[in-house]
Amino acid sequence: MSEAGGERPFLSIGEVLDQLKVDFPDVTISKIRFLESQGLVDPERTPSGYRKFYEGDVARLRWILRQQREHFLPLKVIKDRLEREGEAALDDEMAPTPAPAPAPAAPAAAEPADAPAEEAVRTDRASSPTPRSDGQAAPGGGPDILLSGMSSATFTREELASASGCDEAALADLERYGLLVGKAVGGSSYFDEESLIVARLAAAFARHGVEARHLRMYKTAAEREAGFFQQVVLPGVKQRDPAGRRQSLEALADLVRLGEGLRGSILRQALRPYVDGA
């Protein structure tokens, strides 16, 4: 740590930012200050009020950012774990970094794994059963397809922006067009795991020049489809008999899978003239 700060055993907030940006390109000084304001890190201060970050502080920040990015944990859960486990939670961050092993030859069809938004897209694809050639949905999945498959985590606006790669202006656009809906609690808005999925996918769309206003068509189509499914299975879902309710939920999940397969097929057909002529 003395290399970045000369003879000093600590780093300034700017020097910490430079180190963190290697692994967390989206982190900002405002984010570090926000984490401090939430009690997740407590750097010492110089007599003139400047922050002093030591090795343990930097490791703590890395661990917090990794929990948000890789496990989608809200700050409250992260803070509770730090208070419960103390420095033991940071063991992986404090351990010396092993020398990198020679990289194996990449398979010819290897898929790049970089941005979190792509991971969300791949996860969504992997969780959707492939329709069979006879038009029936592949077995498996059950009513679980109606769930996000993630935790019941909640996110503040700042946490959602950090975890999704969307800046707050982009999140505001998604809210304006009804693609994100937060829950107001005590003057603050909180977002669920589906909001994280939407925000990460929107960030991926944005890299292709697709804006929030263009994504309204997906919301409109999904709401119409949901309304139709409600007419088909809602009476069964509302019944008190557990077995009957389970059967209705399974039917709803089957309809969702069938709808996904049909949409994909129709879209491929519509794009075929352009793809074949490329």
TrEMBL record:
Looking up CDD domains in the UniProt record yields: HTH_MerR-like
Q: Which InterPro entries match?
A: DNA-bd_dom_put_sf, MerR-type_HTH_dom, MerR_fam
Chain ranges passing through the membrane: none
A GO molecular function annotation here is:
DNA binding
Kindly name one Pfam family recorded for this protein. MerR_1
Signal in keyword set: no
Q: Where is the HTH merR-type domain?
A: 26-84
Q: Tell me if Plastid is a UniProt keyword of this record.
A: no
Q: Where is the composition biased (Low complexity)?
A: 106-115
Q: Provide this UniProt record's keywords sorted from A to Z.
A: DNA-binding
Alphabetical list of SMART domains matching this protein: HTH_MERR
Chain intervals for the UniProt region annotation (Disordered):
87-149
Its protein name is Transcriptional regulator, MerR family
